[in-house]
Amino acid sequence: TDEPLVLGIETSCDETGVGIVRGGTLLVDAIASSVDEHARFGGVVPEVASRAHLEAMVPTIERACREAGVRLEDLDAIAVTSGPGLAGALLVGVAAAKSLAVALGTPLYGVNHLASHVAVDTLQHGPLPEPTLALLVSGGHSNLLLVPDITDDVRHLGQTIDDAAGEAFDKVARVLGLGFPGGPHIDRAAREGQVVIDFPRGLTAAKDLERHRFDYSFSGLKTAVSRWVRAKQEAGEHVPVADVAASFQEAVVDVLTRKALLACREHGVADLVVGGGVAANSRLRALAQERCDAAGVTLRVPRPGLCTDNGAMVAALGAQMVMRGREPSDLGLPADSSMPV
Ligand code: KG4
Ligand code: ZN
C-alpha cells in the first residue's frame, strides 16, 4: 500500500496511547495517562500502570477511531509496542493488538519502543535521512543509536550505565522539593536561575572516553547535587533552588549533546534526531541546536507532545514497516520487557 492506514498501540509505561496514521501523516494521537495515580509514590508503580491500561485500552481505541473518522475494518495494519518496557504493561497492549488483528484479519506489527521514539519524527519532518543518528532520552532510557534504516537496522552506540537522564531529573526534583515528574519542574525553575555550580559531567574524562565513548552516567551527578543541597541545609543556609536546577540541567544537557555530536562526527552522520520525554527540555533543545549549527549537523526534534510516550509513534513505525514491505509479526509476538534495539 502507498499510504497504509495504521493504528498503533503503546503501553510500555504509564501512558495508554492509541495513534492512527495514514502513511507519514498523523490523523489522531489519543492518550490516557495514569501519571497522576503514580505521583504520590514518586515513581511509576507497575501494578497500577497495568490496571490503568486495562481500563483505558478499549475506550482509547474507540476515541481514536471516532476522532480520526476511521472504522477498524478500514485499517491496513495494527502496530504495537512489544518492548522494552514494564512487562505487565506491555502485555495489555500486545494482547489488545493481537485480539484486534485476529478479529479483523489485519496484519500485526510488533515494534521496538526505542525505534518508535525515533520514527515518530517522520510525522513532523518527513522521511528519515539514512543514516540518521538518534539521541533517545526519557525516564527509562538514554541511548545513542546509529540508524541506517529505522525499519530493520538500528545500531546501538551507547547508553546510560546507571540512571536514565529523565530519572536523574525526577530524582533531583525530589531533592529540591519540586513535583513529579521532575523534568518540567526543573526546566521551569532553571529559567529563573544561573549556571553557577560546577556539577560533574559523567564519563567525559579521557580514560572514560576510551571504554565508554558513547555511554552516559548520571548517578554521580545526582549524588553530587544531593550532597551539595544537604550541606547547605545542614549549615542552615538558604538553598538556591533555581541555581541548583539550572546548574544540574546544564551538566546533563552538556554531556548529552557533546556525545551525540561526537557520534555524528565519528560516524560521519549529518542528521541528528533527539527524542524521548527529556527532548521536551528547553535547554536541551537550545544547546543541541547551537552545537548542531556549529558542526553543520541538521537537528530534528519532534514537538514535545510527540517526544513523550504516545501511540502515534508506534503507528508511525508500523507504517514505515508496511511501506518498506517488512514481514508482519505472527501471533506468537511476545511482550519483551528487556528487548534490545
Ligand atoms: O518518554 P517519556 O514520556 O517516558 C518514558 O519512556 O520514560 O519520558 C518521561 C521523562 C520523565 O523522567 C520526565 O521527567 C522527563 O521525561 N521530562 C523532562 C521534561 N519533560 C519531561 N525532562 C526534562 N525537561 C523537560 N521539560
Ligand atoms: Zn519512551
Task: Explain the overall architecture.
The protein has 13 helices and 10 strands. The strands form 2 sheets. The chain has a 5-stranded mixed sheet with strand order 3-2-1-4-5, with helices on both faces. The protein has 341 residues and is α/β, with parallel strands linked by helices. The mean pLDDT is 96. The structure holds 5'-O-[(R)-(carboxyoxy)(hydroxy)phosphoryl]adenosine and zinc ion. 5'-O-[(R)-(carboxyoxy)(hydroxy)phosphoryl]adenosine binds next to helix 6 and helix 7.
Task: Offer a concise description of the structure.
By secondary structure, the chain is of the alpha/beta class.
Question: Notable features of this structure?
Answer:
alpha/beta; binds zinc ion; Nucleotidyltransferase, domain 5; single chain; five-stranded mixed β-sheet; binds 5'-O-[(R)-(carboxyoxy)(hydroxy)phosphoryl]adenosine; 13 helices; 2 domains; 341 residues
Low-confidence stretches: none
Structural class: alpha/beta
Bound chemical compounds:
5'-O-[(R)-(carboxyoxy)(hydroxy)phosphoryl]adenosine, zinc ion
Could you estimate the helical fraction of the residues in percent? 40-55%
Strand fraction equals 15-25%
Count of helical segments? 13
Radius of gyration: 20 Å
Instruction: Give the total of domains.
Output: 2
Mean residue pLDDT: 96
Order of helices and strands: EEEHHEHEHHEEEHHHHHEHEHH
Give the topology.
Elements: E1 5-10, E2 15-22, E3 25-33, H1 35-39, H2 46-68, E4 77-83, H3 87-104, E5 108-112, H4 113-119, H5 121-125, E6 132-137, E7 142-149, E8 153-159, H6 165-175, H7 182-190, H8 206-211, H9 219-234, H10 241-267, E9 271-275, H11 282-295, E10 298-300, H12 304-307, H13 312-323
Parallel strand pairs: 1-4, 4-5, 6-9, 9-10
Antiparallel strand pairs: 1-2, 2-3, 6-7, 7-8
Helix pairs in contact: 2-3, 4-13, 6-7, 6-9, 6-10, 7-10, 9-10, 10-11
The structure holds 5'-O-[(R)-(carboxyoxy)(hydroxy)phosphoryl]adenosine and zinc ion.
